[in-house]
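Message: I would value a second opinion on how I read folds in C-alpha cell form. Give me a protein, with the fold worked out from its sequence. Write it directly below this note and I will take it from there.
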Amino acid sequence: MKLQDFYYDLPQELIAQDPLLDRTSSRLMHVDKNSGNIEHKIFSDVIDYLNEGDCLVINNTKVIPARLFGTREGHEGKVEILLLKRRENDIWESLVKPGKKCKVGTMLVFGDGLLKAEVLEVVEDGNRLIKFYYEGIFEEILDKLGQMPLPPYITHELKDKTRYQTVYAKHDGSAAAPTAGLHFTKELLEKIEKKGIVIANVTLHVGLGTFRPVKVDNILEHHMHSEFYMIEESEALKINKAKEAGKRVISVGTTSCRTLESAATDDGKIQASSGWTDIFIYPGYKFKLIDGLITNFHLPESTLLMLVSAFAGKENIMAAYEEAVKERYRFFSFGDAMILI
C-alpha cells in the first residue's frame, strides 16, 4: 500500500486558523460508511445520527501547556522544549531545539530560574530525557510558563487557551488536543444524554507521533510512536453493556478509536486496562469494536487519514475529501467534522 494513495490536493486557505465562536456551529459531513452517500449538516445535528442506547466514547485527556522557552545556563541563546511524555515523576521525554546545543549534562533555565532542567540522555529520534528542578507544584509552574503546543499549520496566536481544550478535559498529559471533541459543548452533551445515549470516557494522552509525517513510500514500514491510555472499569462496563444490547459504539475522534481498538478483545469486548499503545490502523484492518466515528478532516498522507479510510473505505473517504474541498469545508484541528456511520 503506497503513501501516494492517500494524497489529496488541499488549498492552503482551507486550513482553519481560528476556532469558531460557537463550538457546535462547525459544519458536519455525514458519510454513510457502507454506501459512501454524503449529507451536509451543522455539528449540532450530530444528535440526529445517535440512537437511544448507543454509547458515545469521548477522550477526556487534557492538553498541557507543553511548550517552554528558556536559555542554557550561562548562555544567551534561546532554547525551546516541547514535553512529549512523562517517563517518571520529574523526568520527561522532550523535543529540544536547537538539539545540537543541548548535549547530555546541559542545564536549562526557564522563567528567571523558576524552573530548571538537566539533559539526562539522548533517546530515539534525537529526543531528550529532561529532569526538571523546581519548588512547588510542577503543573502550576508549567501553567505559568508554558504555552499551548499548537500544530505547525496553525500560524495565528490562540487568544483563549480553553479553545484548544475539550469541555470535558480531565486528565493532564496530552501534547495535542483530541480535536474531534472540540465541537462539543456541555449543553450538547446534556441533550445527547437526555436522548438516552450513554457517554463513556477513555483517556489517551496524545503525543506528537500521531501527527508525524509518514516518510516511507510503503506505509507498512511506518512505525507509530506509543501513547499512554487508560480505561476504567465503570467505563468499560458502559461500552460492553451497549454492545451486549445490540446497540452501537461511536467513537469521538481517532484517539478514542485507537484506545478502544487497543483494549478490545477479539470477540468485541472492552477490558478495563491501562498501558501504552502504538496501534497503526490502515485499510485492511478488521475493527473489533467501534460502529461509528466522529472525526475532523486530516492531513494528506497522514496515519489519521489511513485510519478513517480503514473504517469507511478508501474510495468513500477520498471521494468525501474531494467533496469537502469543493464545498470549502474547513480542515484540521479548528476545522469542520465528519460522522462516519
User: Anything to note?
Assistant: The chain has a mean pLDDT of 95. The chain has two domains: 3-63+160-340, 67-145.
